Amino acid sequence: MILIKNGLVKTMAGEDIENGQVLLDGDKIAAVGKEVNAPADAQVIDAAGCIVAPGFVEGHCHIGLDEEAIGFEGDDYNEMTDPVTPQMRGIDGLNPMDEAFFDAYSHGVTTAVTGPGSANVVGGTFLAVKLCGKRVDNMVVKNPVAMKIAFGENPKRCYGASQKKMPMTRMGTAALLRELLVKAQNYREEMDAYEADPKNNKKPTYDCKLHAMLPVMRKEIPLKSHAHRADDIFTALRIAKEFDLDITLDHCTEGHLIADELEKEGKGCLVGPTFGAKSKFELKNKCWDTPKTMVEHGLKTAIITDAPVIPLKYLPLCAGLAINAGLDEQEAWKAVTINPAVITGIADRVGSLEVGKDADVVIYKGNPLTDLQYTTKYTLINGQIVYQAE
Question: What is the mean pLDDT of the chain?
């Protein structure tokens, strides 16, 4: 067992605990409080003068699929041969040996939701992984987490402009998505009938694309919609409603312009990447006001890096810049811990320091959201010390 004591414990499940304690038993959290009942032989980490927090959670990125400093050999996140590829699985393109993993967990990011890029109208499935390990199969928190879909400039550019094929317009993107969803709806109905009564119903002919859509059509996982511009966000919502599907709003760059309308929808919003240049026209309204405005309208909001667009190790910096723009500091902490965990369906495992959850704990000297000089003293993932400052 490991006992962490004397730190400011940010549980993200209630009030902070001054001079609190966290007891880890193997890969799970055994106790959290002002004082806990720890065995005499527990390993003790003295966190006096430090912040003790759950590992940061990244809700939308491409870490391990778009690798650091490699180029084409490490570019495994966009299958740009077909605009509709739901059968792609992020797990099959992820390289946990990518140096970005160490960079992330040495800065306190312990879990990431990662998967295909936004070149395709339908890109394939995302998964949630811990960021330390050799074999991705042993790092999985949840797989699949969501089915990636994309609106706006990217599918138009990658197919209409580059390959002179559909989609060339936003109408084309929506049409291709609807076409897939209609077919997937029919396939689900046939599969449901067969599974309910295999004697009297014929098993539908296997279709890898449509089979991959079954968890979406059965509302087991949501659509994960890449949408920056306000009209694209509304198109994503319109189509999800047509087919009665769950959806998350990813990027949401113009969310602050339509927060009153999004409040009516109540969907989880993963905002970013906000740091950096406005690299394309649909980012022209990008600003740090977005997280604050979304939170003020009662929307469950997470801050994302879209790594490697912003290196994942700078997730706390992004939260800090949102604080600088007026976001309440505690809300900023939520935006990089419990909120992305809730939005992506992994809050039973990560995102807060609670009994029974995974023992992912980070100890900081200084506040990683407000102090550029902060130091990560320890990172623990599944109860193991994976990083310790020299």
Answer: 97
**What sign does the dihedral 328-331-337-339 (CA atoms) show?**
negative
pLDDT value, residue 71: 81
| Phi, psi (degrees; rounded to nearest 5) at 201 | -130, 140
**The pLDDT value given to residue 73:** 82
**Coil vs helix vs strand at 319:** helix
Q: Please, which residues have CB within 8 angstroms of residue 222's CB and are 6 or more apart in sequence?
A: 146, 147, 216, 245, 246, 247, 248, 345
pLDDT for position 75: 87
Which residue stretches of the chain are H helix? 99-105, 153-155, 170-196, 208-212, 214-217, 230-242, 259-265, 289-296, 315-324, 329-335, 338-343
Token code pair at residue 50:
């430090």
Distance (Å, rounded) from C-alpha 267 to C-alpha 249? 7
Residue matched to tokens 């939308």: 60
Strand order, beta sheet including 122-130 = 56-61, 109-114, 122-130, 140-150, 223-227, 247-251, 269-271, 301-303
Structure-token match 């059509």, residue found: 217
CA distance 271 to 226: 11
Q: What is the pTM of this model?
A: 0.97
Query: How sure is the predictor about 70, in pLDDT bands with cuts at 50, 70 and 90?
Result: confident
How much is the average pLDDT of 143-150?
98
pLDDT at 178 over 90: yes
What does the pLDDT look like over 316-335, one tens digit per residue? 999 999 999 999 999 999 99
Structure letter (DSSP) for residue 73: G
Please give the Cα distance from 172 to 120 (Å, whole number): 12
Q: CA angle, 79 as apex, 76 and 82 as ends, to 5°? A: 180
Identify the DSSP state of 89: B
CA neighbor of 347 nearest in space, from 282, 300, 281: 300
Distances (CA, A) of 130 to 2, 43, 111, 112, 362: 20, 23, 5, 7, 14
